[in-house]
Amino acid sequence: MPKMPTRNYVGSSGAKYHKMTKSSDDGFVDLQFQRPPPKVPYKAILLATVLFSLGSLLIILGALLLSGVIDAKYADRTWPVLILGLLMFIPGVYHVRIAYYAFKGYSGYSFEDIPEFD
To answer: ∠ CA 9-10-12 to the nearest 5 degrees?
Structure first.
């Protein structure tokens, strides 16, 4: 087997090195640089949808209690219902919005932004 000629070069630091011959097989495969499709967190999206729905319902009930449409004997429950509704509505609508935008394919939104419960 014939030996390939190599050229020795001396760099500015005095270290010897040689140029490598170009080879078509560099050990890398194009597939290893592609991202796998993101896993859809169905449980987290379901939880966000439940939080969004119940929060909306509690906000509506709190508004009806506050406005007096629902009987005044339940007036002491108005503010706790509104606060609980807001505490459920805000994270629910936030994660449902991210899931919707990721599903539609908007740039900057991904299912990876939604936490999983595994």
So the answer is: 135
pLDDT digits (tens, 9 = 90+) for 57-91: 999 999 998 888 888 786 788 899 999 999 999 99
- Greater confidence, 74 or 55? 55
| Distance from C-alpha of 66 to C-alpha of 85, rounded to nearest angstrom | 13
Residue from 101, 99, 106 nearest 48 by CA: 99
Query: Is residue 78 within 8 Å of residue 59, measured between CB atoms?
Result: no
Phi, psi angles (nearest 5°) of residue 8 = -95, 130
> Rounded to whole angstroms, what are the CA distances from 6 to 39, 51, 71, 75, 92?
49, 68, 94, 90, 65
Pick the more confident residue, 96 or 25. 96
Name residue 15's amino acid: A
Q: Would you say 41 and 114 are in contact if contact means Cβ atoms under 8 Å apart?
A: yes
Query: In this structure, are residues 80 and 66 in contact, taking their beta carbons and an 8 Å threshold?
Result: no
**DSSP three-state, residue 13:** coil
Q: Determine the angle formed by the axes of helices 78-104 and 42-67, rounding to 10 degrees.
A: 140
